[in-house]
Every structure is written in C-alpha cells, then in structure tokens.
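task queued by scheduler; priority normal; single chain, no ligands, no partner chains; default sampling; output format set to structure tokens
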Amino acid sequence: MKTKKQPTIIAFSTQKGGVGKSTFTTLMASILHYRMGYQVAVFDCDFPQYSLFQMRDRDLKMVMQNEILKKMAHKQFTRINKKAYPIFQSKADQVLEEIEVYVDGSETTPDVIFLDLPGTVNTAGILKTLTNVNYIFSPITADRVVLESTLSFTNVLINVLMKETQTRIRSIHLFWNQVDGRERTMLYKNYSKVISDLGLQLMETTITDSKRFRKEGEAVAKTVFRSTLLPADPKLLTQCRLDRFVEEFLKIVKL
C-alpha cells in the first residue's frame, strides 16, 4: 500500500501545434516552483524535438551571459533555497513508469508534475498517459481548424475515455489564447456557446496575443518572460492577463 503523497499531474494538451502548450507549461512550472513555493518537476515527452529540455540548456547559457539575469538567479536561489526544477526527457508510452520511479526515489515528493506531450493522438501511449493526468488544460484560438480539432479531441476525452474507462482525470478546461483585441467579440461569443453546448468547460480568463509568447531571454534583457530558470516578470504577466490565469488555474487544481 502506497503511503507516500502522490503529485498532481497536469498537462497543457491539444491536438494542434503552435497554440502555446510548451510555453504555458514553462510559465506555470516556473511561477509555481520559483515564486509560489511548490515543488515542481517537468517530463518533456515531445519526442524527438524535446523543446523544453533544450530550452533549459539555452536558459543556462543565457543566464551566464547576462549579468542582470545572473544576479537575479543567484538572489532567487539563495532566497528560495532549492534547485531549479528538473526537466526529464521521456516518451508518452514510458512516462507513467518513469514518473513512478522518480517519485519513489525522491526525498521530496513534487507537488506538481507537468507533462509536455506530443500534439498528435496517434503517438504511441498518448491516450493511456492522458487518462492518468489529473488536470488537462487546452489552449484554443479563434481559428476554425484549431477549434474543431481541439473540440473533437476534448469531446473524445470527456465522453469516451472518462465515461468508459477508469481515469484519473478530474477535469478538462479549455481557455482562449492569443486573443486579438481587433477580432469581433461576437466571434468569441459564438464559439464559446458551441463549447458550452457540448458540455465542455471554458475558463473565464482569456490570454491576449503577445509576441512575448514566442520570445525567450536575450543577452541584454533586464526581465524574463518564458524561462525554465526564472519566473516571468509580474508586469509582463499582467499585460497579457496571465496573472488572472494563474489565480483561476490554482482554484481549479486546488494544490
């Protein structure tokens, strides 16, 4: 019988690339681990590119080259007195066993494990892995192809997997990302009604479009946004409503 506390497993998952899954994984992992006191681990299952694993390598080089970021990192790690969260390379069909081995061998059990999963349902082991995730967050954009793909994927998860299979999924939440203020409000209202009619859950917070999502640290930067070593600057979070997203996210996952 297991007596050890089990981590909450979370994935930003959808069937389309380029909508922000890896970015949100990085942002939330860094905010929770470095700013909010949670113990975090990340399993990068996005074979073969392993973008988060490679991002950590770039972040380390960036911090060493930038005196401001170097001081910021030193101050942070002295204050929180814990290491950077680990990022492991894995594959979707092996990650559950690897998580178990990691948790069993850890002195400090992580509060949260984030999975960065491939964007295709055809990947070996992906559905089995998803049934063992506790919370799934799916970024959507006002693009018909992205939306239809995500809605059908989420519909399968909720109405097939969750109803017919033993799953550990507690809830699945869609949220609007890359919201362009110039787009018609009616467009979002109509799409939101479709989501509601399907019985799917849509988060209240919408994330505005920002070039920062596609931008990592720079050698001369004084602040960071997307980094695996430092949490995003609070002012930058506020500008794209990510501060509100964090609050809503924490209410949902109840850490």
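post-processing summary
- Strands lie at 8-12, 40-44, 87-89, 112-116, 135-140, 171-176, 201-202.
- The mean pLDDT is 87.
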